[in-house]
Design goal:
The protein is an all-alpha fold and 209 residues long. The chain is built from ten helices and no strands. The protein has one domain (12-205): TorD-like (Orthogonal Bundle). It has helices at 16-32, 37-45, 58-70, 73-84, 96-101, 107-118, 134-146, 155-165, 170-178, 185-205. It comes from Roseateles oligotrophus.
Length: 209
């Protein structure tokens, strides 16, 4: 999702798949780096009411938009560095190997790279983060939903990738962010991500394999 894309809830009739892809793109962008000025401004004016009253994501989405309106961009940038940057081990690690194997660059990353190679995907040139960064995994899901190659971008592949490479550790990441006293904007983001992943998991559980 680029910074010019709309941040909205969409009804199922008006494009549920597009909405799913956009959410994954948004998560990828916000977990990879602080929001750009353009995305920050979009978040501040985003609609917070879901099309159907009581929709599960409405509460956490509203909290994320509320944090965007309450905080200034430099505060969010400083929070990102405090949580995920700095010298040495960060307060919160954004790589799946840490949660699955207790250290970076372990067997889960090897298996992920093999899976990405089978899908015809590879890390873009210039990207230093390994492929198991949460942003990279969300970007893969966005591609598996919105890509044009139906041999790769299909529901069965989405289900398999999500269950294997996101579902097994994403809650741990969201809990780790929420446990940080300095987390504000990113606590709201983690809550929204956790709720969205729960909806995805429930949907995939209903898919016949």
């Amino acid at each position: 999702m680029n910074s010019s894309a709309s941040v909205v809830f969409q009804s199922q009739d008006s494009g549920e798949e597009l909405a799913r892809a956009e959410v994954y793109g948004l998560l990828a962008e916000l977990f990879f780096a602080p929001p750009s000025q353009g995305l920050f401004e979009q978040l501040r004016v985003a609609v917070t009411q879901a099309p159907r009253a009581g929709a599960f994501l409405e509460g956490s989405w509203g909290e994320l938009v509320g944090a965007s309106r309450r905080l200034e961009l430099p505060e969010i940038e400083a929070e990102y560095v405090a949580l995920f940057g700095g010298v040495g081990k960060p307060a919160v690690c954004l790589f799946s190997s840490w949660y699955l194997a207790g250290a970076l660059n372990q067997q889960p990353l090897v298996e992920l790279r093999q899976a990405l190679e089978a899908l015809g995907l590879e890390r873009p040139p210039g990207v230093l983060e390994t492929e198991d960064h949460i942003a990279g995994l969300c970007e893969v899901m966005r591609y598996l939903i919105a890509g044009e190659d139906l041999g790769v971008s299909n529901l069965a592949t989405q289900q398999r990738f999500f269950n294997t490479y996101l579902r097994v550790w994403a809650d741990g990441l969201c809990e780790a962010i929420g446990a940080q006293m300095q987390a504000d904007f990113y606590r709201a983001l983690a809550d929204f991500a956790r709720d969205f992943f729960a909806v995805e998991a429930q949907g995939f559980d209903l898919v016949e394999t």
